[in-house]
């Protein structure tokens, strides 16, 4: 039996399989099996009413999970799937409450990673998969990070290397009249608007049902704060010995005695790729604080901006 066959067998028996996607690693279970879904919530310590994304291999499976797929939904699916996009649609009859959090809608995504594709094709049905981390923590972008987060609580971890995107998918709600972005990702509002030929609104606050929209989320254990570039020098000058050691994540190089600084990529996609892995490593190094320089306030940066804002709301 190869890894994919073993994974499929485990899913069929109601087990949990962690697998790579291009965004982050997912904690997968058979989306039609309530006992398996319960395990996801137990392992993640996730509130039971937080809905799960169902992953599919092929657009032809959409009708099994969603009813009324609007023209906007089809346009986005055709433009971005397989890829880092989740669509919120009206759910089909028979979709379990554990998937939807008892809402009328369902989140669906076709990921673009060869291992995820192989798994979904062989399994032949939907795989529910939240990010493979404990609730509120940083999503894992390597198999090693999944092991650290969940250890023996998962039956199998498929190793597909480091995730290319590094932050979670863009979530677009196309279940109603007006498309809304519920979670920014590497596919930007601009790109979505260009496909739909209409502006999309971005719900920065509210939507408590989207766990990623809770104010503190995606957070390291180490106290993390966000700081504007112009305030960095004053901030560092005011530190006392008792505040050290701290580490700075900056966009332009800075040298300051006794302060470790890490220069992050000046490109939003490369920054997103590095962010969680960097935070995860720093979290193990005993710093009293992680200080992150704010990133530009533009469409291309909105996913990174969102994640560093949430990481710093401890
Ligand atoms: O990139 C990703 O989306 C990753 C990979 C594994 O696919 N998955 C992921 O899942 O980030 P999770 O559960 O960590 O985050 C999914 C978000 C949650 O905040 C959830 O509340 C929201 O999607 N969601 C799922 N179904 C929804 C629905 N019907 N309405 C509103 N939000 C929904
Ligand atoms: Mg998550």
Describe this structure in words.
The structure is a single chain. The protein has 314 residues and is α/β, with parallel strands linked by helices. It contains eleven helices and 14 strands. The chain has helices spanning 3-12, 34-44, 62-65, 71-80, 97-100, 114-123, 143-150, 189-196, 232-237, 268-283, 302-311, and strands at 17-19, 26-30, 53-55, 85-90, 105-109, 127-128, 156-157, 170-173, 180-183, 201-202, 224-227, 246-250, 260-263, 289-293. The strands form two sheets. Strands 7-1-2-6-3-5-4-8-9-10 form a ten-stranded mixed β-sheet, with helices on both faces. A hairpin with a 6-residue loop joins strand 1 (17-19) and strand 2. Helix 1 crosses helix 6 (114-123). The longest helix is centred in the C-terminal third of the chain and has 16 residues, at 268-283. It starts with a helix and ends with a helix. The model is unreliable at 206-211 (pLDDT under 50). Bound molecules: threonylcarbamoyladenylate and magnesium ion. Residues 130-131, 139, 212 line the site of magnesium ion.
Topology:
Elements (H helix, E strand, L loop, with lengths): L2 H10 L4 E3 L6 E5 L3 H11 L8 E3 L6 H4 L5 H10 L4 E6 L6 H4 L4 E5 L4 H10 L3 E2 L14 H8 L5 E2 L12 E4 L6 E4 L5 H8 L4 E2 L21 E4 L4 H6 L8 E5 L9 E4 L4 H16 L5 E5 L8 H10 L3
Bound molecules: threonylcarbamoyladenylate (TXA) and magnesium ion.
Threonylcarbamoyladenylate binds next to strand 4 and strand 5.
């Amino acid at each position: 039996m190869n890894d994919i066959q073993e994974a499929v067998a485990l899913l069929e028996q109601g087990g949990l399989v962690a697998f790579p996607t291009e965004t982050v690693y997912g904690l997968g279970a058979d989306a039609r099996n309530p006992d398996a879904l319960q395990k996801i919530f137990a392992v993640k310590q996730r509130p039971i009413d937080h809905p799960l994304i169902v992953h599919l291999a092929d657009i032809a499976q959409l009708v099994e999970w969603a009813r009324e797929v609007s023209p906007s939904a089809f346009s986005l699916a055709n433009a971005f799937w397989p890829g880092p996009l989740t669509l919120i649609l009206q759910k089909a009859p028979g979709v379990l409450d554990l998937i939807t959090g008892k809402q009328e809608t369902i989140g669906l995504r076709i990921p673009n990673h060869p291992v995820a594709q192989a798994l979904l094709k062989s399994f032949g049905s939907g795989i529910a998969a939240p990010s493979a981390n404990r609730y509120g923590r940083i999503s894992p972008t390597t198999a090693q990070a999944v092991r650290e987060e969940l250890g023996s609580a998962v039956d199998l971890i498929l190793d597909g290397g480091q995730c290319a995107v590094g932050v979670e998918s863009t979530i677009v709600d196309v279940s109603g009249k007006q498309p809304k972005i519920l979670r920014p990702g590497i596919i930007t509002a601009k790109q979505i608007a260009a496909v739909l030929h209409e502006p999309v609104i971005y719900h920065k606050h509210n939507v408590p049902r989207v766990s990623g929209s809770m104010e503190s989320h995606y957070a390291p254990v180490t106290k993390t704060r966000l700081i504007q570039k112009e305030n960095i020098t004053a901030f560092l000058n005011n530190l006392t010995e008792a505040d050290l050691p701290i580490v700075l994540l900056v966009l332009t190089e800075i040298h300051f005695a006794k302060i470790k600084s890490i220069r992050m990529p000046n490109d939003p996609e490369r920054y997103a790729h590095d962010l969680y892995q960097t935070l995860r490593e720093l979290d193990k190094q005993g710093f009293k604080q992680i200080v992150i320089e704010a990133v530009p306030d533009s469409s291309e940066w909105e996913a990174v901006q969102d994640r560093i804002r949430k990481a710093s709301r401890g």
